[in-house]
């Protein structure tokens, strides 16, 4: 990157010298070269991202008929309907709560496990594999496992609670519990990936820093606070952002565990979009919701960068 | 800053994926929707001309076979949503048919749940990729009729002079619109009340005389509820979180679900279950729930079945299709009874559920003829007897009930007779014919949400109103786009 910017600067200087001689064709040479290099990705992005996005914007202004074809232009009616609808508001609240439940706990648990697994002990490779193993599980498979654990009648969690004298918990049947149950499942699924990334970050920290600190007599907790966490901050920032966006887009576990119920308590926004689009065949309102979700996540991510990135220490 | 740009791109990518998912479907279904019929007609002519070639293209396995044998059976694709044991039974039926003759080979393909199946069919409907036969659940009936992708089976009934009167009238009526039978019923069931006979005896109730009315059920549920120190080990009654059961209790009171004679005289414009009929049901469930004799086990069929099998609930409603399994699996004696009805009314009977088989119109006349032969084959008493015994679904052809395997089965499980009697006692009317609305899946979801809101403390009136308003909104939105064309 740096060498290319040097050539750009050189070229600019050269161009400045013979400014009046350059035609429009010559002046846009850099731009055209850049476009040539960017062409493959622009093409792919256009086909798989920009076009669908524009279609979504287009559809959000229409009502669709039974075939899913945009047939009636309604302007902002879809948005107005959604914003007034109590179902959508409830869905937003559930989604925000869900993000709140899952993001901090996923990252903290993964960080804790990664710190443990970062110790050099015999057989630590085994634990590292086990702790990151949920990464290899598909959402569907993990959700089905939890479906059996949460089962109201034959679920092992309730049997266990009964053994230690606690009465059964209606995991997926009570609106308050259902969201927590889905959050537990999601945290469990998130941990593997977060663990692996954080462990990688920990291994990247220069060992000399710890050696120096030890010579200075710094204790473990002081090292953790002053060396590990600051040096790990880019990794943590990355994993927080990813987990955050993933949480907003959780779908599979909702579909398998609760189908948005009970009483719409787990009707997270992406599930609500799915339901509108593929069960009710209302692509218009579904697109409008997708756009609102996009704007929301986009805004929150920018805020996160604005305030979070300041605390990040790049080496 | 560089990192920020990367992450934003990543973010856009992720949200974009989601949007793309939603859009793909739309884009795919747009093509057949706008110009599908024209294409179809052209294609069918072409197909007739190049029939042999077309078949070779469409099925590689078939092509290989034909190279070996020289003569080529016609391939008929049949999409269905029968998973697990049902799928195995269906595959056996198809295999038997394929082995019984050389002209046609039926290729049965499992396409996932009814919803997934319909979504897939929506995207290929009207094109040459569409299957010749497709199984669609009962609430998709209105959509299928309006889709323009299907040929009503009535055409072939008329052409062939097939005698439909041999089939069960109360099942045919669901799929009959404006006097025409649109699809061939295949797997039909109704709900029934299942109860634990052992628990009845323990509670001092007569297991041979099950409760029928709302208040009888409520009294029995009270007696059947067993609790010790605040912990309830057995609840009296439960109902699955599924709109189907609510619809039954509306229909048995002789009330239409929507206006325009349940959407059969014209496009329904308003939900009609919000009157005293609907309120009776909501209040009945609410009062049991408040009294602690009712427990809710969610929207999953398996969960409520497991609760019944484990003795946690003494009475519940289930599909008649599960009768045999329920009886065979239960460690206690199971009784089967008619669905409950409101007090002081003459019960009108039940609406069937399940699915029927539709014939696509994007195929050649020959293929349709072959598909029709297979449909007729499925309706023979022999096949229906087999189907009924192995799955628990009704026999569409009542003659099947006289087949030896069925009578033996009924002797062993006399409870299997109960849903059949219930169906045959049903009084034909628009209410028991079942509603015909395109937004049925949504309406059902709204009813379930209303019940769930009520379990959380909402009053029955408010919950019912919520369901009515949401259903009306769905119907209204649908009608605005439907009348546009």
TrEMBL record, chain A:
It comes from Salipaludibacillus neizhouensis. Belongs to the binding-protein-dependent transport system permease family. Residues 92-304 form the ABC transmembrane type-1 domain. CDD domains: TM_PBP2 (cd06261). This is Glycerol-3-phosphate ABC transporter permease. It comes from the Bacteria. Pfam families: BPD_transp_1 (PF00528). It is found in: Cell membrane. GO terms for biological process: transmembrane transport. The chain crosses the membrane at residues 34-54, 66-83, 95-117, 129-149, 156-173, 179-202, 229-248, 286-305. It is a multi-pass membrane protein.
Automatic annotation (TrEMBL), chain B:
Residues 1-22 form the signal peptide. Pfam families: SBP_bac_8. It is found in: Cell envelope. The keyword Ligase does not apply. One of its GO terms (biological process) is transmembrane transport. GO terms for cellular component: cell envelope. Residues 45-57 have a biased composition (Low complexity). The keyword Transport applies. It comes from the Bacteria. Gene3D superfamilies: Periplasmic binding protein-like II. Residues 65-74 have a biased composition (Polar residues). Residues 26-82 are annotated as: Disordered. InterPro entries: Bact_solute-bd_prot1, SBP, SBP_1_CS. SUPFAM superfamilies: Periplasmic binding protein-like II. Keywords: Periplasm, Signal, Transport. Belongs to the bacterial solute-binding protein 1 family. This is ABC transporter substrate-binding protein. The lineage of its organism: Bacteria, Bacillati, Bacillota, Bacilli, Bacillales.
């Amino acid at each position: 990157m740096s060498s290319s910017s040097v050539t750009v600067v050189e070229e600019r200087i050269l161009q400045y010298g013979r400014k009046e001689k350059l035609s429009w064709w010559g002046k846009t040479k850099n731009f055209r070269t850049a476009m040539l290099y960017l062409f493959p990705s622009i093409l792919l992005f256009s086909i798989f991202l920009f076009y669908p996005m524009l279609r979504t914007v287009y559809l959000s202004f229409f009502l669709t008929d039974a075939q899913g074809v945009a047939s009636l232009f309604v302007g902002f009616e879809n948005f107005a309907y959604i914003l007034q609808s109590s179902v959508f508001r409830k869905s937003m609240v559930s989604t925000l709560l869900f993000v709140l439940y899952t993001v901090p706990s996923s990252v903290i648990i993964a960080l804790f496990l990664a710190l443990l697994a970062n110790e050099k002990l015999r057989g630590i490779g085994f634990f590292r594999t086990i702790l990151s193993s949920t990464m290899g599980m598909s959402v569907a498979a993990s959700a089905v496992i939890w479906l059996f654990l949460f089962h109201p009648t034959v679920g092992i969690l309730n049997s266990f609670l009964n053994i230690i004298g606690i009465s059964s918990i209606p995991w997926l049947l009570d609106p308050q519990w259902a969201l927590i149950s889905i959050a537990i499942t999601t945290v469990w699924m998130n941990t593997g990936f977060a663990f692996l990334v954080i462990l990688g970050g920990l291994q990247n920290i220069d060992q000399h820093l710890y050696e120096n600190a030890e010579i200075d007599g710094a204790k473990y907790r002081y090292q953790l606070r002053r060396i590990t966490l600051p040096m790990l901050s880019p990794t943590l920032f990355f994993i927080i952002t990813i987990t955050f966006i993933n949480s907003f887009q959780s779908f599979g576990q909702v579909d398998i565990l609760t189908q948005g119920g009970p009483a719409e308590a787990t009707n997270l926004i992406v599930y609500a979009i799915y339901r509108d689009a593929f069960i009710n065949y209302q692509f218009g309102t579904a697109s409008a919701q997708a756009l609102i979700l996009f704007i929301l996540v986009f805004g929150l991510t920018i805020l996160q960068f604005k305030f979070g990135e300041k605390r990040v220490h790049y080496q | 800053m560089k990192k920020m740009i990367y992450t934003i791109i990543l973010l856009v990518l992720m949200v974009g994926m989601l949007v793309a998912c939603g859009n793909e479907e739309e884009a795919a279904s747009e093509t057949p929707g706008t110009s599908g019929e024209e294409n179809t007609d052209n294609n069918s002519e072409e197909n007739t001309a190049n029939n042999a070639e077309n078949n070779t293209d469409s099925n590689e396995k078939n092509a290989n076979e034909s190279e070996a044998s020289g003569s080529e059976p016609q391939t008929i694709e049949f999409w269905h949503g029968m998973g697990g044991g049902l799928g195995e039974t269906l595959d056996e039926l198809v295999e038997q048919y394929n082995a019984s003759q050389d002209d046609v080979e039926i290729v049965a393909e499992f396409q996932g749940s009814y919803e997934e199946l319909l979504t897939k069919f929506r995207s290929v409907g009207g094109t040459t990729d569409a299957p010749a036969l497709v199984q669609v659940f009962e609430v998709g009936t209105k959509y299928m009729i309006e889709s323009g992708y299907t040929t009503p089976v009535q055409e072939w009934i008329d052409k062939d002079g097939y005698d439909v009167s041999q089939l069960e009238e109360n099942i045919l009526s669901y799929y009959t619109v404006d006097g025409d039978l649109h699809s061939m019923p295949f797997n039909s069931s109704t709900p029934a009340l299942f109860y634990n006979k052992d628990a009845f005896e323990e509670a001092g109730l007569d297991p041979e005389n099950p409760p029928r009315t709302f208040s009888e059920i409520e009294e029995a549920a009270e007696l059947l509820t067993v609790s010790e120190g605040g912990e309830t080990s057995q609840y009296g009654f439960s109902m699955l979180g599924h709109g189907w059961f609510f619809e039954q209790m509306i229909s048995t009171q002789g009330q239409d679900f929507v206006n325009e004679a349940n959407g059969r005289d014209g496009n329904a414009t308003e939900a009609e279950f919000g009157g005293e009929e609907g309120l009776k049901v909501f209040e009945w469930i609410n009062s049991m729930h408040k009294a602690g004799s009712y427990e809710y086990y969610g929207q999953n069929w398996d969960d409520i079945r497991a609760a019944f099998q484990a003795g946690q609930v003494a009475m519940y409603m289930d599909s008649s299709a599960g009768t045999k399994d329920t009886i065979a699996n239960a460690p206690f004696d199971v009784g089967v009874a008619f669905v409950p009805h409101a007090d002081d009314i003459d019960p009108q009977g039940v609406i069937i559920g399940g699915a029927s088989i539709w014939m696509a119109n994007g195929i050649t006349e020959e293929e349709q003829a072959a598909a029709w032969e297979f449909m007729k084959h499925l309706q023979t008493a022999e096949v229906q007897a087999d189907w009924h015994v192995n799955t628990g679904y009704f026999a569409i052809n009542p003659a099947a009930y006289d087949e030896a395997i069925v009578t033996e089965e009924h002797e062993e499980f006399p409870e299997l007779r109960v849903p059949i009697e219930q169906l045959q006692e049903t009084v034909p009317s628009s209410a028991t014919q079942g509603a015909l609305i395109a937004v049925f899946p949504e309406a059902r979801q709204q009813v379930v949400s209303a019940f769930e809101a009520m379990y959380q403390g909402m009053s029955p009136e408010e919950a019912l109103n919520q369901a009515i308003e949401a259903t009306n909104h769905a119907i209204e939105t649908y009608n605005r786009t439907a009348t546009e064309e």
